[in-house]
Design goal:
Blueprint: H1 2-13, H2 15-35, H3 62-74, H4 78-88, H5 100-110, H6 118-147, H7 155-169, H8 183-205, H9 209-229, H10 238-249, H11 251-257, H12 260-293, H13 312-321, H14 334-354, H15 367-371, H16 383-405, H17 412-415, H18 421-431, E1 436-438, E2 441-443, H19 445-464
Length: 470
C-alpha cells in the first residue's frame, strides 16, 4: 500500500529517530497498562516497602505521588530484592542470587533521585536505568546488524538493522525491560560486547592486529560487567573459548607458515579476555565468601563455605528457588513450559539457521569458495558475520538448554532479550519474506511479531497485578 511504503521509507530515512519514537510509544502503552491495573495485586509484598506506606494519604505534590505510584507498580517480584539490596545492602543470603552489579548501580544512581525513602529512590533509579539501557541496546543492535552485513550501507542492510532493533524494542521481555530488573542493562552491555567482538574479528581479517586486540579486550570488559548483572553473561565468554580452541587447532599450520608469534599473541589476548568475563562472576562470590566464611572465631559457617568451589549464588539458587537439573519438571509447572515454548522454539530455529557447516574463514584458501556455502536467507551477512553468527548460535542454544533443563523455564522470555541472533533471524525472514520452518511446518515471521506484542501486553497486566509468569 502507498501509505505503508511511505511510512517505511520515512523510518529508513531517519532510523534512529524512528526507533526512539517507537520506543517511547511502546513504553507509554506498557506503562498505561501497568498504572491502570488494580492495586495492590495478588501479592502484597510491595506494600511492605517503606515508600508504599500511606502513599494515597500523604501530602506530597502530584508529581511526587505519580512517581511513587510508578515505583510501586513496577516494583514486583525480583525488583523487590534489587531495591532492598540497593537501599541497605545484602542482609540475607538469598539476596546474593540477584545481580550485584545492578544493585550497586541502583545504589549509586538512587542517591541522585527524588523521594523520601531509600527504597523509593532505588526503584526510580532502576526504572530510569532500565529505560535508558533498553533504548541504548536497541541502537547498539542497529549498529551490530550493519556491522555483520556484507554491504552495511545497502538498503537491505539498513532495513534489516531497523527491523532487528525494532524487534528488540517490542521484545517479549516487555515490562521487565522497564522495571527495576537487570535485563535491560544486561542486554545493553552484552550487545556492546558482541559489537566490539565482531569489530575485532573484522580487524583480524584485515590484519590490523593492534586494534583487534584492543577491541577484543574491551568487549570482554563489557561481557564481564554484564555478568555482574546476570550470571548467564558467563556464556558470552564462550566466544573467547571457541576462538582459543580454533587458534590451538591452527598452531601447527602457524608454525609452518611463520605466523606462530602472531597466533600466540592472539591466544594470550583470548585467555586474558576470558579471565575478565570470569571475574564478573567470581568477584561477587568472593565478597560473599569474605562476609560469610571468613569470620574470625565463628565456626558455624554456612555449608557452602566448605565446598570445593564455594559459591553463594549456586547455593541460594538451589536452596531457595529449587534451581537444578530437572527440578522444575513437575506436572504443576507444565503451563509454564507451554508459555516458554514459543521462545525456546525461536532460539532453537535461529540457532539451526546460523549453524550450518561452512568453511572457517581463517582456514579457507580462498574467500570465493566460502561464498558458495552461504544460503539465500543468509547471503546478506558478511563472511565475518557468518562466522560470528555461528558462535552466537552456540551461546544462545546453551542458554535455551539450561532454561529447559535447569532454570525456571518461563524466564527464557526475558533473559533471551540479551542475545542478538534470534532478532537477526526474524528480521532476515521478515525482510526477505521467507517463512520460519521447522520439521516441515512453516510460519510467517509476522505471526511471531504478533505473538511478541500480545505476550508483552498480557505480561504487563499480569506483572502489575503481581501474577506469574515472572
Amino acid at each position: 500500500m502507498p501509505f505503508e511504503r511511505t511510512l517505511v521509507k520515512r523510518c529508513l530515512d531517519y532510523p534512529r529517530s524512528s526507533l526512539i519514537l517507537l520506543f517511547l510509544s511502546w513504553k507509554a502503552v506498557l506503562l498505561f497498562i501497568c498504572c491502570t491495573s488494580p492495586h495492590p495485586g495478588y501479592d502484597t509484598s510491595t506494600t511492605l516497602l517503606s515508600f508504599t506506606e500511606g502513599q494515597n494519604t500523604d501530602q506530597s505534590s502530584f508529581g511526587g505521588r505519580l512517581l511513587r505510584t510508578l515505583a510501586g507498580k513496577l516494583t514486583r517480584w525480583d525488583a523487590i530484592y534489587f531495591t532492598q539490596r540497593a537501599s541497605r545492602g545484602a542482609q540475607f543470603e538469598q539476596e546474593w542470587a540477584f545481580g550485584w552489579g545492578f544493585a550497586m548501580a541502583l545504589r549509586i544512581l538512587g542517591q541522585l533521585q527524588p523521594g523520601d525513602h531509600n527504597e523509593e529512590r532505588a526503584a526510580l533509579a532502576g526504572i530510569l536505568i532500565s529505560a535508558v539501557a533498553h533504548l541504548t541496546s536497541a541502537l547498539v543492535l542497529y549498529q551490530l546488524t550493519q556491522l555483520v552485513a556484507a554491504r552495511p550501507t545497502s538498503p537491505e542492510a539498513l532495513r534489516l538493522a531497523f527491523v532487528s532493533a525494532s524487534l528488540h524494542i517490542i521484545s517479549p521481555a516487555g515490562i521487565f525491560l522497564m522495571a527495576p530488573y537487570a535485563e535491560s542493562c544486561f542486554s545493553c552491555l552484552n550487545f556492546a560486547g558482541f559489537y566490539l567482538y565482531s569489530l575485532g574479528s573484522q580487524y583480524h581479517h584485515t590484519k590490523q592486529y593492534n586494534i583487534r586486540d584492543i577491541s577484543i579486550l574491551i568487549s570482554s570488559l563489557f561481557f564481564g560487567l554484564a555478568t555482574t548483572f546476570r550470571s548467564n553473561g558467563l556464556l558470552s565468554g564462550l566466544l573467547f573459548c571457541l576462538d582459543l580452541s580454533r587458534s590451538c587447532v591452527g598452531l601447527k599450520s602457524s608454525v609452518q607458515s611463520g605466523l606462530l608469534p602472531s597466533n600466540l599473541r592472539r591466544m594470550t589476548i583470548l585467555v586474558v579476555a576470558g579471565g575478565f568475563v570470569s571475574l564478573g562472576f567470581i568477584y561477587p562470590q568472593y565478597l560473599a565468601y569474605h562476609e560469610y566464611c571468613m569470620i574470625p572465631g565463628y565456626e558455624d559457617r554456612p555449608s557452602w563455605c566448605t565446598k570445593r568451589l564455594p559459591s553463594i549464588y549456586t547455593w541460594v539458587q538451589g536452596r531457595y528457588w529449587n534451581v537444578g537439573l530437572f527440578r522444575y519438571w513437575t506436572v504443576s509447572n507444565a503451563p509454564l513450559f507451554l508459555l516458554a515454548a514459543p521462545m525456546l522454539l525461536i532460539i532453537f530455529i535461529s540457532s539451526v539457521w546460523a549453524l550450518p557447516s561452512y568453511q572457517n574463514i581463517q582456514a579457507s584458501p580462498n574467500r570465493e569458495k566460502m561464498q558458495t556455502h552461504r544460503t539465500a536467507d543468509r547471503d546478506w551477512m558478511s563472511l565475518v558475520g557468518l562466522d560470528t553468527a555461528r558462535w552466537l548460535a552456540v551461546t544462545q542454544l546453551i542458554l535455551a538448554i539450561l532454561a529447559l533443563t535447569s532454570y525456571h523455564v518461563q524466564i527464557i522470555t526475558r533473559i533471551s532479550s540479551g542475545y542478538p541472533l534470534w532478532y537477526l533471524y526474524i528480521a532476515s525472514q521478515m525482510v526477505k519474506r521467507s517463512p520460519i520452518t521447522l520439521a516441515g511446518f512453516s510460519l510467517s515471521a509476522r505471526h511471531v511479531v504478533i505473538w511478541m506484542v500480545v505476550y508483552a501486553l498480557l505480561q504487563a497486566s499480569l506483572f502489575a497485578a503481581f501474577l506469574p509468569p515472572a
